[in-house]
Amino acid sequence: MLWVRNTFLISGLTGLLAVLLTATAGYAFARFRHLPGRYPVLLFFIFVQMFPGFLALVAIYYLLSRLDLLNTFTGLVLAYSGGIISFGTWVYKGYLESISPSLEEAAMVDGATKWQVFTKILLPLSAPMFVFVFLLQFVGTYSEFVLANLVLTGVESWNVGVGRSKLHHRPVPDQVGESSPPPASSVPCPSSSSSTASSSTSFPGTPQER
To answer: Given this model, what pLDDT does residue 106 score?
Structure first.
């Protein structure tokens, strides 16, 4: 149950942080069209998605070790959340561009600020997209093993994926406190020589085979 709780905690926090980063970054790129460096950054996000995530394992491990975040949920959540920024920003940016700006203009005519427009109009309309981003990040981190095995080194901080992998390399004690019985392959079997000798033994009154 400890590993299951850790898994739900890590995946839940990662999903919430992914929604927060996606909402702010996607809104900035969708509505602030004159933002300096907007187009190069969007192209960089596409370029980053061309490479698999495991190429950044060395850099992530180095950064977390320098920040003293190894074997912590904080380090793993930050590493997971950084990987969703590029994809989530593009997805939410396209979703916001499908919403007519006339809704925001009408609200601002009535006296609403940009913050009120974002929180009271755009965020409620973006609820389906936020659910998609949350579930995508939750499911992806729930079944992830490579980065979790690299960051989480303590038994009490393992998630389900790391814990199950470690069970294959060590004996699992049962409820009584004794070790599990050895597999069938390790049980000694009678040698073939003894069975051959017993079969070749002749008894009185029986003819021997030639």
So the answer is: 93
